[in-house]
Amino acid sequence: MELTPSDDEALPRRMGNLGLSLMLRFERLNHPRDIHEAVAILRRLVGVIPDTHPDFPLHAGTLGSAMQDQFQVTGKLSDIDEGILWSKKAASLTPEDKPEHAQWLGNLGNALNVRFQHTGDLDDNAQAILAQRTAVSLIPKEDTSLPTGLNLLGLSLWSRFERTRTTSDIDQAIDALERAVRLTSDHSVDLPTFLGNLGGALACRFDHLGSRLDLSQGIVTLEKAVTITPEDSPELPALLHNLSGCLNTRYESTGQGSDVDKAISVAQKAVELSPEEHVDLPMSYTNLGSAHLARFISTANADDLDRCISSYRKATQLTSEGHPLLPERLHDLGSALHTHWRSSKCDSSLQEAVSVMKACLQLLPESHTRYPRILTDYELALFEMTSDLVHLSGGVLAAQQAVHRCPETHVSLPSKLSVLGSALCSRYVNAGNYDDINESVTALRRAVGLTHEGHSSRPTRLGELGSSLTFRFESTHEETDLSEAISLQREAVRLIHSTHPSLPGELAGLGISLMRLFEISTDKKDIIEAIEVQQKAIKLTAPDHARVAVLLHNLGVSFAKADDIDRAIDTFREAIHIIPDTHVVLCRVHKNLGNALWRRYTVKKEPEDADNCIYHYKFASNFRFNPPQPRLEAAKNWTAKLKYYLPESEEVISAFDVSVRLVTTVAGLEQTTRRRFAFLQEISGIPLDAAATALRHGRLDKAVEWLEQGRCLVALADELTRVSKALESSASESRIIRFDMTIPEKLTIEQAAKRQMDLATKWVSLLEEARAIPGFEMFLQPAPLASLCGRLPPMGFVIMLTVNEDRCDAIALSFKQEDTRHISLPRFTLSKAKQYRRILGMRLAAHDLRKRSSGEPQDLATEEPFTQESVERDAGKFRRSRTSAEDNIQQLLRGLWTDIVQPILTTLGIPKHDDSLGHAHPRIWWCPTGPLSFLPLHAAGIYEGLDSESALDYAASSYTPTVSLLTRRVRDDGPIDEDIGGLFLTNHPKAPGYPAIPGTTREVQTIYERVEGMGIRAMKAEGDALSVDDCLRYMEEFSCIHLACHGSQDASDPLRSRFRFHNGTLDLDTISRRDLKNADLAFLSACETSMGEATLPDEAVHLAAGMLAAGYRRVVGTMWSIGDKHAPDVSIDFYNYLWGHGEGGDAKFDGSLSAHALHHATQNLRHNLDNCEKSLLTWIPYVHFGY
């Protein structure tokens, strides 16, 4: 060609011959330079001849085929696009009656199908099938090109089946491929290729329908193709790696070791026969790696895993940058490295796995079909490396995205559902969210439903579903879940071949479920069977397999259940001996070994057992490689056993330090608020027990610190404003995932949760940075006692009260630390506190104190008939037919006085106040914990007889949810911005669904007229004139607010406690997220604004506390419903006192006197009533919070 002049008529023909020859040599030797040169020549050729030239269709069609070959080398879609363009041109320029027309249509269909395989565009596939059907119909039956056309048609139908899972497509594909084989001579060079494609299609139908006959026929067909293919054929390596893949599939189905051995041998031969530059060499290495990995899973032979990693590494090295299969091969390598870490706990393997998967993700757009699946593995690997729940949630989110993107009929959907279900189950185990285990069961049930009988993965998926059902049973105790779990796990075991590597895992799952069955049946045969299947699982597992330690742990638990404590202890110790130092199961094994040792100690009383028990609890509590939840379980045992066995040991202080810190961590910012409340109900007694222990050991400082930590878990931080506000906003969002939600709806919730956890991580990072600054070491941590005292109000005492099973104590804190003291209250007990709370609840229910009422029969200043019917209607669980002499409010208040308040006042030397002296009462801030949080300490006293006296005679009382919150309000008590200073008033007398409270209109109007007359900035809005958003805006524009409306507690979700307006509701959650920098006073003339939540005895979560957290310095609230008759008078007396006693006379609105103003207003009301129960319940509910 080089010697032919450019104007020679023979040049086009010679260029075409050279291009075709280079193509043929490429197809023979697979040298990329040959196809690149062929493409260059053919492009030049079609550029120098007109499309009217009689040979143009031939050269265009040849170039189209060459572009397809070049695509195999480069993986660039632009090559296949160009191939389609030239094939279309060739077909359009060739008459239909010419045999070449069918040839170009077949090539066009093949190119379109290749592009479909890489883009997923079903329209390309449809056009491919149409072109190939047309081509086949145009070829005479006796034509030797018919088998080629049938082969191409079969491949396109097969491709569509892999996308749509329509069984008729794979059936038609096999029919076409079988015809192609039948019509091909035994001596044809195309026969091995056609046999190879038919074998692959049969294996694919096996994967879909589970017929082992298809798989066996596929292997036989591929073996025949290999047998008739010459050793030097370039097609042989591809046939060999296809055969290796099918043998591997049969091994996964049957567990026959000979298949995996042969798969490795065949894959190794494919590698050896492939020249270094062969385009299929990376695929051969991938198949070899997969076969070694399958054998490793069976035998745990480390050499196989090393060879797998080596093969995968070679495959990635041989894959050029930009090749579409590079991310997939990197993923294979990363997954194998992850498996290596799981078996060896070699940290470098896990680090490399994470690095490789990260590189893989960087090569893919987020829209890529494989992106979510790879991201799932990446996040789960990071979780195993860091134990950070953020990454586990990232894995769940990515798995949900993988399921969402997968077509309902796609073959990979069951696998993706299985991954999602397992990830959700793992998060349930590590974080305890019940929604997760429900979703796990749902996903795994779908996966099982989509996996046909006979599929190699069906036993594993049955076992996964069984395990999730067992976990759900542990939470719900629904016996139907456990029964189904055992049935599924028995079926999984039955379906698995006795030599299959997955059998030990399925036996282990069945053993756990049988152990749970024994716990409810107490039938010895259940625990005996559990032990037998667990022992069998261990026997079938290689001694150095990573699974052995977990199996031993489970067996130890079963021995303990069977009361074979000595064998349980020996088994746990054997597990500890072989577990790597950083394995997460180590925490659980140490904790359960501690349990077993303690059980033996209670029988044999050998001190060594008790000492060892405490050691193992301590180890588990401090094991940093575990999430905090299981460590907290161990820490609770550690403290309990120390209190019992070594009550005087100082180690108990360290143990409680760890426990309280773990409580704070588990309930902390990585949890949603709803989950935080549920968790706090479970562990609410820990800070109280810790404080009582600290006081018994003379550690007043620790008692204060732990009580503060225990009561600050739900409170909103007002530091690090931007991050914390965003975090709490996210954490307060509902994350409940319902079964009837669509996948996109679930994804939205999961994405919000992931954002919240990311913010939590940022929060922790910011805290660490802040605490690294000199002088900020204790930033946002409980302040040391001396520092805390120095930030208290300069006058008065803060009284922290705590009660538990052992004791009741008060801690009196003062600005002068030397005046701080511990006051023991031996006459008061936890049972008495609970009794008082029950009495109070019963009496409130009997008087229908649930809503602010306008009707006189419900107003407490008038007597109301008290009947059995009314108590049963209103009292709920506090039903009684009559009130005993001991079960009334007067006796309750007397008990609080004699047992708590009077001893405190006496110890502190606070005298009865002499009103004639003209100065204000001293201040006391009550900070009660536990059930004391719901009792009216401020009204404690004797109200009968000549010796009557009460707390009101000695001091003006306030409350604070936490000492730290009070110190922040003291710190913020500076001048109010003059532009913000003023009072906003609103009343809502006719809230929908609630009794009318017309007295609120008079209340607000009277106050407003007085304010206007004094020239104080004010605004009022009644009922329909105010929206919730308007109210929030006015709260930011006015320093003080007066709300006269219905208010209520939400027992199921305290942060949804709310004020009820004509146009909607204003809840605690919304208020708590406001940033009210100039807020001064909030008067909540509503019911139940400071009741708190009975299920959170260590928390102060109510509307008044929410207003404090939002920034108000002082808040007036009510402990229960108030009568509409007297509420206006209390409000008016309150404001009259404020204006009459403020600096500068009536014109000064001084919120700092609000505690004294409320004391004055309630005393006025009290003196206008008698001391009967109803009268007491009229004025007692008014309480003051804050500074």
UniProtKB/TrEMBL annotation:
Listed SMART domains: TPR
Where the record annotates domain CHAT, the positions are 891-1186
Q: Where is this region: Disordered?
A: 850-880
Statement: the UniProt record of this protein carries the keyword Secreted: no
Chain positions of TPR repeats: 549-582
Superkingdom as given in the UniProt entry: Eukaryota
Which of UniProt's keywords are assigned here? TPR repeat
**InterPro entries found in the cross-reference section:** CHAT_dom (IPR024983), TPR-like_helical_dom_sf (IPR011990), TPR_rpt (IPR019734)
Pfam annotation, one family:
CHAT
Provide the protein name.
CHAT domain-containing protein
Recorded source organism is Coprinellus micaceus (Glistening ink-cap mushroom)
